[in-house]
Amino acid sequence: MSQDRPLNNAELLSVLDWYRAAGVDLAVVDEPADRFAQKPPAPTAMPPRAPLPGDAPAAPPPLSGPVGGDPSEARQLAASAQSLDALRTALENYDGCGLKFRATRLVFADGNPEAKIMLIGEAPGAEEDRQGKPFVGRSGQLLDRMLGAIGLDRTSVYIVNTVPWRPPGNRTPTPEEMELCLPFLNRQVELVAPKLVMTLGGPAMQTVFKTTSGIIKMRGKWQDVTIGSHSVPALPSLHPAYLLRNPPAKQQAWRDLLSFKQRVEELGLA
Ligand code: URA
C-alpha cells in the first residue's frame, strides 16, 4: 500500500474491522500519535517543568489506569461499608482497579436488593457500560426470558457481576482485576445475604466456587459456597452470551433452570 495517498472508504472500514477484532473500541485522543517517530526522553535529573503555551499536548493517560492496586485497600474499603449504598460509594471512590479508567461508569447491580436470589455474572458489556446496569444488552434480554420461564424477574432477583466495570473490548477480566474487585463482591453478597445463588458462565463460577475447573464440567451441580462470610447453596450455569452463540446448549441451561426453580420453590422464595 502506498504511504502517500489517503485510504479509501473500503480500506478505512477494513482498518476499523481490524481494530474491532483486536478489541480496540475506544479513541483515547482525537489525533493519532506516531509512536515510531517519538524518541524516548533523554534521562535527566531535573524535575519536569510546568507546561508552556505552544507545548505539544500532554501524553494521553495510560490505557489501563493505575496498575498493581492493593487488594488489602479493597478489603478495608469493602469491609467498612455497612449498607449497599455505602458500598456503591466506596466503589465509586476506589481507584485501585485499572478497569475503572477505561469504563464509562460503574455497573453496581440491578434487581431487588431485598431479594433472596442472587445472580452473579462476569463483567459488564458495552450496553451495561452505557446504562450502568448489569445484563441489559442482548444477553440480558435472554436472561430475562430465562428467568421468566421459571417464574422469576428482576423484582425477585438481585443481579451483580464479578467486576463492576467493563473490561476493554469485552475481554475476560484478568485474575488481578478479579482479585481487586472480589472484596466488593464478597461484601455485596454479605449485605444482601441471598438464600440461593446462580453463577452465569465460567469466570463467575471459578470466582465463586474457587475452582479452576471448566464450566461445562461444573454446570448444574449444586454446592454450598462461602462468599465473604456468607454461606449459601449455589448453582453454576451457562452464560446467556454463550447460549446466544451456541443455541443447542440451551437444553443444558434449561435443565439448570428447572433445578434452580425446584430449590426456589422448596425454600418458598417466589
Ligand atoms: N455479561 C455479563 O456477564 N454481565 C453483564 O452485565 C452483561 C453481560
TrEMBL record:
Stretches for region Disordered: 35-74
Protein species of origin: Devosia subaequoris
Reactions catalysed, as given in the entry: Hydrolyzes single-stranded DNA or mismatched double-stranded DNA and polynucleotides, releasing free uracil
Protein family according to the UniProt entry: Belongs to the uracil-DNA glycosylase (UDG) superfamily. Type 4 (UDGa) family.
Pfam families on file: UDG (PF03167)
GO biological process: one example: DNA repair
Keywords: 4Fe-4S, DNA damage, DNA repair, Hydrolase, Iron, Iron-sulfur, Metal-binding, Nucleotidyltransferase, Transferase
Domain Uracil-DNA glycosylase-like: 108-258
SMART domains: UDG, UreE_C
Record-annotated membrane-spanning stretches: none
Biased composition (Pro residues): 40-51
E.C. number: 3.2.2.27
InterPro entries for this protein: UDG_Type-4/5, Ura-DNA_glyco_family4, Uracil-DNA_glycosylase-like, Uracil-DNA_glycosylase-like_sf
GO molecular function terms noted in the UniProt entry: 4 iron, 4 sulfur cluster binding; metal ion binding; nucleotidyltransferase activity; uracil DNA N-glycosylase activity
EC category: hydrolase
Protein name (record): Type-4 uracil-DNA glycosylase
